[in-house]
Amino acid sequence: MWKSIRKHFKPNNTNQRFRVLVLGPANAGKTTLLERLTDSPAGAAIVSRNGKRVITTDIRTRGIQNIDDEITYVSSPDFVFHDSGGFEAGGVKEVEAAWQFIRKRSLASPSQQLQAIWCVHLCRFTCHHTLTHQLLQALHSNR
């Protein structure tokens, strides 16, 4: 699927990039997924906040993610990822932050809008499933 997206996505201008929000519990493999999809080694992410590069040792460090940060990879410059930061057990705060982010991006200029939302979840985290499911239901009902 990723190769198909990369093959068919052709930006109209230099400001247009395919923007993806990645949702899921902490330690579900969101960062690993992005590294594999972009053929990038661990720690190769470029993290930017408000247009400025953020100095970070590794985006895998728990608790440092900011959903507004733009995560890019040299191997896939036309794609921007946003990490939900991981939904903790009972973490309504993280789900609310994701919901606010999605609403904000839906009202943004086309170059800042999300093109996709990917959910990564693990079967053993039933609480996370419930929170993610509630978020997705809310998104569906507010289309």
**Which second-level CATH architecture applies?**
3-Layer(aba) Sandwich
Percent range of helical residues: 25-40%
What is the domain tally? 1
Radius of gyration: 15 Å
How do the SSEs run, as a string of H and E?
Answer: HEHEEEEHEH
CATH class wording: Alpha Beta
Mean pLDDT across all residues, rounded? Answer: 77
Shape: globular
The number of helical elements comes to 4
What kind of sheet is the major sheet? 3 strands, parallel
How many beta-strand runs? 6
Largest sheet, spatial ordering of strands: 5-1-6
CATH T-level topology: Rossmann fold
Class based on secondary structure composition and strand pairing: alpha/beta
Quickly list its features:
single chain, 143 residues, alpha/beta, Rossmann fold, three-stranded parallel sheet, three-stranded antiparallel sheet, 4 helices, 6 strands, 32% helix, 17% strand, G domain-containing protein, GTP-bd, GTP binding, P-loop_NTPase
